[in-house]
TrEMBL record:
Domain (NADH:flavin oxidoreductase/NADH oxidase N-terminal): residue spans on this chain: 5-334
Official protein name in the record: Alkene reductase
Source species taxonomy: Bacteria, Pseudomonadati, Pseudomonadota, Gammaproteobacteria, Alteromonadales
Top-level taxon: Bacteria
Classification via InterPro entries: Aldolase_TIM, OxRdtase_FMN_N, Oye-like
Pfam families per UniProt: Oxidored_FMN
């Protein structure tokens, strides 16, 4: 079967992907007690090297970034060495892999680290850590200017660590209600300094992180995920669109490796985005390489790319169920249907 989806795509002058299918970042909570990738994770990623690009599960940049059990890190030498085994195995199988850099902000829980929960403002979320009902979320501390500068520096350091660990680049996790996204939405950001109140100020943290990572590892290796529509741990606000309009205009001047929408179902329309879907809104406002995602099948992704609605597709749950996703769809073979029960082990 020949289709553009299965042909090579140049992200930029230094990175060429062998096809347009990305494995979406998928948290699996399977790292060891020191948040080091295990041998089972090495094999799990190596089995998926047929993807044009694997994006790693979200990987925390420092201890207070953690909100779920056993999520891997990229801040100790042991973690860097653990990831080196993953990237070596993916490369040995002819694949490429980016690390997704993560700080959960107010979704963190001090059960996992010593210290405070940091966020743009002291606005908590309801509920508790998934599958750990006794760990209810706390009201975070509004980050001080010094906290913000140290967070930015730690994203850059984690990006350097990723390159040291052999990753081909990084995707900054700016989506899904976590730290960077919290700065971008009025529901979580009530700051009165240069990081709040206006679209320009609310975009500043995201842009500072992007620029610090670009300075550390170069623009060709730097990508970003954004969720312009608030949908996860966050409420929608019609003022948010102006923030993303501003942010995307700024990102258009930066030549990122790609921009990736964060959404579970890209047919969902957002009132706060004038009734557009995530990919429609990003395509209309962002001029660089765009990755679509969210409940796509091979067929619907093929149509979307032929219709120029985005350039690359990220596939999540089907990749959990089918390590050989790319072979199966290229050969027209049936896919194993994803089930949440599959999250219990790494196949
Ligand atoms: C996710 N998703 C996700 N997103 C992200 O940016 N970082 C992450 O670590 C995770 N983790 C994660 C775990 C699990 C179990 C699921 C199901 C999803 C979201 C994921 O990248 C993707 O956007 C969605 O799964 C939608 O794509 P599919 O699954 O419909 O192809
Ligand atoms: C987004 C990161 C979540 C990390 C937790 C991993 C385990 C949760 C598995 C549940 C998968 C179901 C996906 C549906 C979530 C809907 C969110 C809007």
């Amino acid at each position: 079967m020949t289709t553009e989806l299965l042909l090579p795509f140049k992200l930029n002058s230094t990175i060429e992907l062998k096809n347009r299918i990305l494995m979406a970042p998928l948290t699996r909570c399977m790292a060891d007690e020191n948040l080091v990738p295990t041998q089972a994770m090495v094999e799990y990623y190596a089995r998926r090297a047929e993807a044009g690009l694997i994006i790693s599960e979200a990987t925390i940049i420092r201890p207070d970034a953690q909100g779920y059990p056993n999520t891997p890190g990229l801040f100790t030498s042991e973690q860097i060495q653990g990831w080196q085994k993953v990237t070596d195995a993916v490369h040995a199988n002819g694949g490429k892999i980016f690390a997704q850099l993560w700080h959960v902000g107010r979704v963190a829980h001090p059960h996992f680290f010593d210290g405070e929960v940091l966020a743009p403002s002291a606005i908590g979320i309801e509920g508790s850590v998934p599958r750990m009902r006794e760990l209810t979320y706390q009201t975070p501390k509004a980050a001080t200017s010094e906290d913000i500068q140290s967070l930015i520096a730690d994203y850059a350091k984690a990006a350097e660590n990723a390159v040291e660990a052999g990753f081909d680049g990084v995707e900054i996790h700016g989506a899904n209600g976590y730290l960077i996204d919290q700065f971008l939405h009025y529901a979580a950001n009530e700051r009165e300094d240069e990081y709040g109140q206006t679209p320009e100020n609310m975009s500043r943290f995201a842009l500072d992180v992007v620029d610090a990572v670009i300075s550390a590892i170069g623009t060709d290796k730097t990508a970003l995920r954004l969720s312009p529509g608030a949908y996860f741990n966050m409420s929608e606000d019609n003022r948010d669109k102006a923030v993303f309009d501003y942010l995307l205009a700024q990102l258009n001047t930066r030549q990122l490796a790609y921009l990736h929408g964060g959404i579970f179902d890209d047919s969902m329309r957002f009132a706060s985005l004038e009734d557009m879907t995530t990919s429609e809104y990003l395509r209309a406002n962002y001029s660089g390489t765009l990755v679509g995602v969210g409940s796509y099948s091979f067929e619907s992704a093929k149509d979307a790319i032929e219709e120029n609605r985005f350039d690359l597709i990220a596939i999540g749950r089907p990749f959990i169920a089918n390590p050989d996703y790319v072979s199966r769809i290229s050969q027209g073979k049936e896919l194993v249907v994803y089930d949440d029960a599959m999250l219990a082990e790494l196949i």
